[in-house]
Design brief:
By secondary structure, the chain is α/β, with parallel strands linked by helices. It is about 40% helix and about 15% strand. An 8-stranded mixed beta sheet has the order 3-2-1-4-5-6-19-16, sandwiched between helices. Helix 4 packs parallel to helix 6.
């Protein structure tokens, strides 16, 4: 074996497993007994690999057939939310779901999509037509089957199995009383997994005895017990993780990794330095971190890692940290956000303290002088936390043990710190105890309600008593309360009252007492008989919105059995009494077996009729959109003669969508989301009138989504994933006065917002941005990385962008049209010019080196040269320059976070080198339209045949940037003469002889690969492979921990964590709000509606809901009786159907109406300088340029502000004698300006005296011919109005703010 051949065992730095980047084995896919023919789920062994080649085993692009990890591809977004460890633990979870109506099927769906190990469903109820209102998998065939009927579990099984081939799903056929027995709940081998149940979810109330027994059995055997039930307009969820439950991660928030930049030992803690638990004069170790804010609290625990130079014994050791603060006189008014303060913190801690001590003494002296003779008064002092410092707690037993275990002789050893070191935050596990169902039913004094106001008022007491009474009712009568049955309702109320009275004397129980601000007062109050009776009358019904809400929340509770996240504590009720607006018997009944019977029984026949004729615009068909389409189909929205649902989405279905966008299956991949989603729900409810579109909603689609379309809508419903699109739909709803339903998710977090015309704030009233990420200094990325994310970002921003995006793009611009390229070059910034020229020269030189045409061997050579330059030559150059600087300055360079890098060595290669060559060569093959080599054995042979040689390194004369400032361009802007020389060389190139190149648009999920013989989706394009190899090559250079492929994909692809559970839950809440809209509750005030901000990971304390905020008022600056304020819903309408205004008349109208001076009238919302009226242009009418008989010129001062170049010409005409021949030149210049001024005046007067619509058309019609002009014309022709904004002020120069103007005119 030659040195360039890589041993399959030499894999120490190859990141091939998501949970252990240093493993080389592949993962095993869990098979599903329900999918026997799935041949992709087998263990991949070395024998499956060509020629025994194992480098690159972790990559995705070479894999086909059995080698592809389809399971991992599906759960990318879940892994971003849960982490790899939790994802692995979920495969150990088997779940029993009791009940398969609406809540049950929703819970099962979400758990299966979450990729738990197995789901067993139980429900012996025979399918009826009404079940089709909440269980989306029940079909007419299930309902109509005569012999024996079809159970809800049987009806759901097939579709549930198809959701995820990697989760085992089956049905259980047992009696209710057998559920808690040895054969069911206590089975040791569920679904052939050889594992027991980890959780049971009860989704419908069971008889009291069986329910309590099931809970007790679960508690006694370490099985999580969740109950989620929906009855009418009431939903309840209960969570019990038994007497002993350990939470390994309470919130799921990312832990901090802090880079150490300095460690200091203070022998004598100064008086001003404040560290909890450290006394004045004691020794303390202060750690300075590179980040400006460590984000830790007193008592947090960190693990030391990457400690060096004699401190290696500390690696892997835990230590408690405390915040560091400094006392400062209040009078000093230190600006902790200012540059001066932040700069001061870069000094050693002793210097920082000295500065504060001098400041303290100065103010103390001044204070003492001022307060001389006054006794007892102390100088006011404030505490300033130093957020880039932490103190290590080493003075207790744990500290002593740390020193002993790490072979560190004493605290003083920390003073020898030179460089490196990380503090990794760890969260100690939390042990919690939970009470049983029986105990909490009785001893929950103030049960939590989802709506905060209801909780504080104690409305949960009546819901809690209703559940207890219903259980007793069934125990007494043998049946559950019947629909609309007054006698049953009266009996349930009576039982509830009896339960309440029995509990009065028992402390800590749930009974009807006064509750104030969530605290029981011990004073009896009247039972809410109306609420309890309603609960009874509607007990047998369920609404699809409540089912989705509970199904998401319950499934998320099950996931917490893995130890991840905090369970709810322990009950949460939600009661939407607002939905019951009319209990007229002829409206809510009689019922004749419709699929909508439950909705009718609750909200009435008139509601169902209005619902059928709703016209709904659903924007987006991703995870949110799929849930909303499901809800609309189940409810029967858009099924009437005038009703319709439009759904639009430009995206195509990807494999990674399948873990949460439950309408799609594997065979849908590559097809339009909106089309496939509409087909599915149309199959569920053929009466839904639905149109699927693949159009973007924005400023460039208003010819399709026109006035007629928007004005016909009942509601706009957002299912979007970006701020810009949300802002646009909100603007449209504001303009057309339409309600908007808005929602969003981020992992376990979600929110929703109901936006009502004139009654609530709008989306744009808040400040939202997609750009919420902290920026990393370019100097850190370029030369001094110290964290894995630095290597990932540099691989994406520098390597991938330069080599495969920016480079090929500018090269192609030059190749296709050199003259056009050079004209564009002049508009670029100097740094970008230099970068562009060098990239083009590089791409041309590559072809010269390849003999004119680049083949795959040429791609390999290019990749090899890149590897040598980026990971060897540049590293050696950097180290050499740093060494020279050390020699000249006498100061050590590699300190703090700056790590001395090491170069790669092709003569003794690590596997990463081949991995880099493999992915980079194939990416270059895509760039140069060359057939790639995916077979790794063949690729190894190509490399061996080329006999690639490592170039000899010699110190370069080029300057290496060692600065620590944030110079983004480095030395790329130092072009000057070199750039001019490059331009000259490129001018001589015959571009027609150059080889075409294909820029690579970064795609995190693969897509189809062009220019190769391999077709497919996910991971075939080498993008993530290249980034992972580049990241870990750079990590190897700087001795930084390697990154797993999935980590690179999440970070570089800016992948947003997404979960089926969160999506379902928030969409259920929005479905309920939609019902309120249909009921017309907005006329009763926005208080009837509910917004939410919920984190399913952090316990029930983070279930936050609230009434929508009122509209934000905008002050006009006018005085009464004129409007003093308005909201974003308001606009001024001016209609001139019988004679259009001129611009002058419009200006006069605004001036008279509001007593203002109009400065500018423009397209409303436009941020450019264009306008149909600008007072600056009007002022030019007073400007003049006059030629006197003696040849002198008189020019208004304003002319010089517009044409400053004419000032010299005017001065020269005043100085030169009439006979001077030079006067002709200067006079010509002035005459040209005079002509321009006259033209400006004529143009202004034409617009000023002309119609407003004509002025708008002339001002805003695009100047370039083509699509933009055609689009503008089509939109303009279709409308009889324009929207205008006004800038104006009062006589006292105070700015006035007016609403937008809708100016309506006669098109004829």
């Amino acid at each position: 074996m030659t040195k360039r051949q890589l041993s399959p065992h030499n894999t120490a730095t190859t990141p091939s497993s998501e949970t252990d980047p240093k493993r080389v084995c592949t993962t095993t896919n869990t098979t599903n007994d329900n999918n026997k023919n799935n041949n992709n789920n087998k263990m991949i062994t070395d024998q499956d690999q060509p020629n025994g080649v194992t480098w690159g085993e972790w990559m995705g692009a070479h894999k086909t057939g059995a080698a592809i990890d389809h399971e991992s591809e599906r759960i990318d977004r879940q892994k971003a939310a849960f982490g790899g460890d939790t994802i692995a633990r979920l495969k150990d979870l088997n779940v029993l779901i009791v009940g398969c109506a609406g809540v049950g099927v929703e819970t099962a769906k979400n758990l299966i999509l979450s990729n738990v190990g197995g789901v067993m469903i139980w429900d012996m109820t025979i399918c009826e037509e009404v079940h089709r209102g909440s269980n989306f998998y029940v079909t007419p065939e299930h309902v109509l089957k005569k012999e024996g009927g079809v159970t809800l579990a049987e009806a759901s099984l097939g579709e549930l199995r198809s959701l995820n081939p990697f989760c085992r799903v089956d049905i259980l056929s047992k009696k209710t009383e057998e559920l808690g027995g040895e054969e069911v709940l206590l089975s040791k081998d569920v679904l052939g997994t050889h594992r027991p149940y980890a959780a049971v979810v009860v989704t419908k109330l069971l008889p009291k005895k069986e329910l309590i027994q099931l809970n007790e059995t679960a508690r006694a055997n370490g099985i999580a017990f969740i109950m989620a039930v929906s009855n009418g307009v009431t939903s309840s969820i209960f969570s019990d993780f038994g007497p002993h439950h350990e939470i390994t991660d309470a919130t799921g928030e990312p832990t901090q990794t802090l880079a150490i930049s300095n460690v200091e030992v203070l022998d004598d803690k100064p008086k001003l330095l404040q560290v909890e638990g450290v006394k004045e004069g004691e020794k303390v170790v202060i750690v300075t971190v590179a980040q400006s804010d460590h984000g830790l609290e007193d008592g947090d625990v960190v693990v030391l890692e990457d400690m060096r130079e004699g401190m290696e014994g500390l690696n892997g050791k835990s230590v408690t940290v405390k915040r560091v603060a400094i006392a400062s006189p209040t009078a000093a008014k230190v600006d902790t956000r200012g540059v001066a303060f932040k700069t001061a913190l870069s000094l050693p801690t002793s210097s920082v303290i000295s500065n504060f001590e001098r400041q303290y003494d100065f103010y103390k002296t001044a204070f003492d002088e001022e307060e001389e003779g006054k006794s007892g008064k102390k100088m006011p002092v404030r505490t300033i936390t130093i957020f880039n410092r932490l103190a290590l707690v080493l003075n207790g037993d744990n500290g002593k043990k740390l020193l002993e275990d790490s072979s560190i002789s004493s605290i003083d050893a920390f003073g020898k710190y030179q460089s490196g070191g990380l503090l990794n935050q760890v969260r100690p596990p939390i042990a919690k105890q939970y009470k049983s169902l029986a105990e909490t039913l009785e001893k929950t004094p103030v049960p939590q309600m989802l709506r905060g106001e209801d909780w504080e008022l104690g409305k949960g007491v009546d819901v809690h008593l209703s559940i207890a009474a219903a259980l007793d009712f069934h125990e007494k009568t043998g049946h559950w309360p019947r629909l609309h049955h007054d006698d049953d309702a009266a009996e349930v109320v009576k039982l509830a009252e009896g339960i309440s009275n029995e509990r009065k004397a028992i402390e800590g129980t749930c009974w009807s007492q006064n509750i104030q601000y969530g605290f029981p007062m011990g004073e009896p109050r009247e039972l809410d008989e109306k609420r309890i009776a309603r609960y009874s009358r509607l007990f047998t019904t369920e609404l699809s919105g409540f089912c989705a809400f509970l199904g998401g929340a319950a499934a998320q509770e099950v996931i917490k059995a893995s130890g991840k996240f905090t369970p709810i504590d322990q009950w949460v009720h939600h009661d939407e009494e607002a939905l019951v607006v009319d209990e007229c018997k002829s409206n809510v009944g009689p019922l004749f077996g419709s699929r909508y019977d439950h909705q009718i029984a609750i909200m009435g026949k008139d509601f169902q009729a209005r619902l059928a004729n709703q016209r709904i615009f659903l924007v987006g068909c991703g995870a949110l959109g799929c849930e909303y389409l499901k809800g609309l189909a189940l409810m029967g929205a858009g099924t009437g003669k005038d009703g319709k649902v439009w759904v639009t989405d430009m995206d195509r279905i990807e494999v990674s969508n399948l873990s949460r966008q439950f309408l799609f299956r594997q065979n849908d991949v590559g097809h339009p989301k909106s089309v496939r989603g509409a087909l599915v729900v149309k199959r569920w409810n053929p009466n839904v009138n639905i149109e699927a579109l693949e159009k973007k909603v924005g400023n460039d689609s208003e010819d399709h989504f026109d006035d007629k379309f928007w004005e016909s809508l009942s509601v706009c419903w957002n299912a979007l994933d970006n701020v810009q699109a949300r802002q646009y739909t909100d603007e449209r709803c504001l303009f057309y006065t339409k309600p908007l339903l808005e929602s969003g998710t981020l992992g376990t977090k979600c929110n929703h917002e109901v936006i009502l015309p004139f009654r609530t704030s709008s989306y744009n009233d808040g400040k939202e941005s997609d750009d919420n990420e902290a920026q990393i200094a370019m100097c850190t990325l370029r030369s001094f990385p110290y964290l894995p994310k630095h290597c990932i970002e540099y691989a994406k921003q520098a390597y991938f962008s330069d080599y495969f995006e920016f480079g090929p793009d500018v090269y192609e611009n030059f190749r296709q049209d050199p003259l056009e390229f050079f004209s564009q070059l002049d508009t670029m910034e100097p740094g970008e010019q230099s970068r562009s020229l060098r990239m083009i020269k590089t791409f041309i030189d590559l072809q010269g080196e390849a003999g004119g045409k680049i083949d795959f061997n040429g791609c390999v050579r290019i990749a090899f040269n890149r590897m040598m330059k980026d990971f060897r030559t540049s590293i050696l150059d950097l180290s050499h320059s740093a060494d020279e600087m050390e020699k000249s300055s006498g100061k050590k360079f590699w300190t703090g976070t700056k790590r001395r890098p090491r170069p790669v060595d092709w003569t003794d290669p690590i596997p990463l080198l081949m991995e880099y060559l493999y992915s980079t060569s194939n990416l270059y093959a895509s760039v140069w339209h060359v057939e790639g080599v995916r077979d790794r054995g063949q690729f190894q042979a190509v490399v061996d045949e080329l006999k690639l040689e490592q170039p000899q390194w010699e110190p370069s004369g080029d300057k290496v940037d060692l600065s620590e400032g944030d110079n983004e361009e480095g030395d790329s802007g130092a072009g000057g003469e070199d750039d001019e020389k490059l331009k000259g060389e490129l001018y001589k190139i015959d571009s027609s002889k150059l080889q075409p190149a294909q820029p690579q648009e970064f795609e995190k999920d693969g897509k189809l690969v062009e220019h190769t013989s391999v077709f497919g989706t996910d991971d075939l394009n080498f993008h993530i492979d290249f980034l992972t190899a580049s990241t870990n090559m750079r990590s190897w250079n700087y001795d930084i921990k390697p990154s797993a492929r999935h980590t690179v994909k999440i970070t570089a692809g800016r992948i947003i964590p997404a979960l089926a559970t969160t999506t379902a839950m928030v969409c259920g809440l929005v479905d309920i709000e939609f019902c309120k809209l249909v009921l017309g509750l907005q006329s009763q005030g926005s208080e009837k509606f509910l917004n939410s901000n919920i984190n399913l990971a952090a316990g029930s304390g983070n279930f936050t809901t609230f009434a929508p905020d009122p509209p934000v008022t905008i002050a006009t600056g006018l005085e009464s009786p004129l409007p003093e304020s308005f909201t974003s819903w308001d606009k001024i309408e001016l209609s001139f159907k019988t004679g259009e205004m001129s611009v002058e008349q419009l200006v006069q109208y605004i001036t008279r109406s509001f007593g203002v001076t109009v400065d500018r009238i423009f397209l409303h919302g436009d941020t450019e300088d264009k306008a149909i009226f600008n007072i600056m242009d009007k002022n030019k009418l007073d400007w003049s340029i006059d030629f006197a008989e003696d040849g002198k010129v008189t020019v208004s001062d304003g002319v010089f502000t517009q044409w400053p170049q004419v000032r010299m010409a005017v001065q020269m005409l005043g100085r030169l004698p009439p006979t001077s021949g030079q006067r002709v030149v200067f006079k010509s210049q002035v005459e040209k300006v005079k002509a321009s001024l006259d033209q400006t005046k004529d143009s202004f007067m034409k617009k000023f005296n002309g119609k407003v619509s004509n002025a708008y058309y002339e001002s805003y019609r695009p100047s370039e011919e083509g699509e933009k002009q055609d689009y503008f014309d089509s939109v303009f022709e279709a409308r009889d109005y324009v929207t205008l904004g006004v800038d104006c002020h009062t006589e006292s120069k105070e700015d006035i703010t007016l609403p937008g103007i809708k100016y309506i005119f006669d098109k004829n």
